[in-house]
Amino acid sequence: MKKRPNLLFILTDDQGAWAMHCAGNADIQTPNLDRLAAQGTRFDNFFCASPVCSPARASILTGRIPSQHGVHDWIRSGSLDKKALGEHADHPYFASEDVPIQYLQGLTTYPDLLARNGYTCALAGKWHLGDSMQPQHGFSHWYTIGRGGCFYNQADVIEDGKLHFESRYITDLITEHALDYLGAFAGQENPFYVSVHYTAPHDPWDEDQHPAEYIDLYRNCEFTATPDEPLHPNRIPTAPGGTGEERKRLLRGYYAAVSAMDAGVGRLLDKLDQLGIAEDTLVIFTADNGMNMGHHGIWGKGNGTFPFNLFDTAVKVPFIARWPGHILADRVTPSMCSHYDIIQTLNELLDLGVQLPEDLPGHSFANVLEQGEDTDNHVVILDEYGNSRMIRNQEWKYIHRYPYGPHELYHLTTDPGEKENLVDNPEYAPIREQLLSQLQNWYYTYADPAMDGSREAVTGFGQMRRPGIYSEGKPVYENSPKYQK
């Protein structure tokens, strides 16, 4: 039997689709992502399932939307026992009252499918889906972040089942562990899956958090590739933001984090070449969610505002795939696809032959990669964050917020920057009603009533428990006042 290809899956944290030179950003320096795109296929219209970390990651892994898997906000607790943090247990950044929770327990992920098909599965980097101490879902090699975010030069990492703090730059450490995995697995008979989950370019963006060589790349940059707009009136008080020099400072740190990560990607690609396995390895690069860095006056992702925002800058993510001889090279596709399509796509590309559940909303886009077809898998793309839901096609975007709004409607053909909200314009009432009907029917089809985010009090300040978990005979919902600090 012919050996299946290896899989190198690179996932970044809070990287907007706009934050690559190959995507048209003239300010940012990403030579290795540009190289990857030139050797593979890049998507111009790829979307996350939710514009915040943990729900998006859960959807990538399971192919389920948040209203199916029950992760609706970033995981605020449940990653590890507070006592494991030792002297750092009462630090305001690390303090918690955690009892480990496996948020994806009982759900099938694509790493599970790979492990069942003989793949050696290794994680290097961020997990942020609970119980970071324990390898989960097919992973036999596990180097991760103790909690969700971390300082770049004081990361709480878990290695060999133990938690310790690192003083070295976490981007380099993640890269080095991934390189070790590649070297160890290259000569084995069975294929491997190495998942490289960078914390970059998530904040902090202070200069002391990143190597000077990357900060200095942007020392004199005017940052003309991103808009310079007044702060959004709905921005949350804890969000960063600013104009003038403060705007440049924030962008300098963000761009530096991207370029440092890009250098790590270059080392990984070089390693595949050195080992002679580049042609036997499918490489996928994407981000968990998009990011506003001054776009619309917002500094943050979906929860950079309240109500949550679902602008394209928050929901569009980079997506590049390379597999020499199988995936078309130097190609950009306008096809509209989503993270919830990944599990079907890997099932087809890697010839796993798994009969996936019928209630998964995604569709394989292997035909886009291998045959060069430009298709819209769903005609529309759906996105959600708590009570906020979005439906989008090539021409229109509608955002509905349960139960009372505010709602938004944008004509993307004439208003790609989403500046003019047409929702109250009677001329477009039929379009609004049609899109709302499609949105409601889609969620009626796929949402699990016990996990339905539109019925949950999602605040953007973190999830404490999974919906559907029972305590004293009563359902416990995330962000319930019972579990607020």
Automatic annotation (TrEMBL):
Residues 5-351 form the Sulfatase N-terminal domain. This is Sulfatase-like hydrolase/transferase. Pfam families: Sulfatase (PF00884). The lineage of its organism: Bacteria, Bacillati, Bacillota, Clostridia, Eubacteriales. Gene3D superfamilies: Alkaline Phosphatase, subunit A. The keyword Transcription does not apply. Belongs to the sulfatase family. The keyword Calcium applies. Keywords: Calcium, Hydrolase, Metal-binding.
